[in-house]
Amino acid sequence: MNNPSSPVKLQGGCACGDVRYECTAEPVVSLNCHCSVCQRYTGTAYSSVRIVPAAAFRFVRGELRYHTSTSNAGHAVSRGFCPNCGSQVLGRIAEKPEIALISAGTLDDASLYPPALDLFTSRAQPWVVLDDRLAKFDEGIPAGPPNT
Ligand SMILES: [Zn+2]
Ligand SMILES: [Zn+2]
């Protein structure tokens, strides 16, 4: 299934370039998470992630450091950042090792695979303009695409 010669669908890296990655699968889902934990970690209003099969993701260069905390949905989420420049690049959820959450801003072309969902809109900042075209969830999704 995971053919090593399959074409790269996504690639990106941190701000300083020490960490580079690629992914040979298209995202399972693209979403924006407005939860309070994502706001704190990203240092801004929300996190936009591209959720991909972990088996299709690999680092081309460098290593991340991870910090783990409990998400608003109750998951143990490890957020990986470049030890040199601090860019948050990748999220991993302990209970869902089969997926990886790419921080959209680290993609070389973040216009690809735009988000379809807004999660935790109940916690969204009042100054964020939400896109009506995206499906909205006050909290996480009870059963469905993994959320952070
Ligand atoms: Zn870096
Ligand atoms: Zn979140």
From TrEMBL:
Gene3D superfamilies attached to this UniProt entry: glutathione-dependent formaldehyde- activating enzyme (gfa)
Keyword hit for Metal-binding: yes
Superkingdom: Bacteria
Keyword terms: Lyase, Metal-binding, Zinc
GO molecular function, one term: metal ion binding
SUPFAM superfamilies tied to this protein: Mss4-like
Family: Belongs to the Gfa family.
Protein name: CENP-V/GFA domain-containing protein
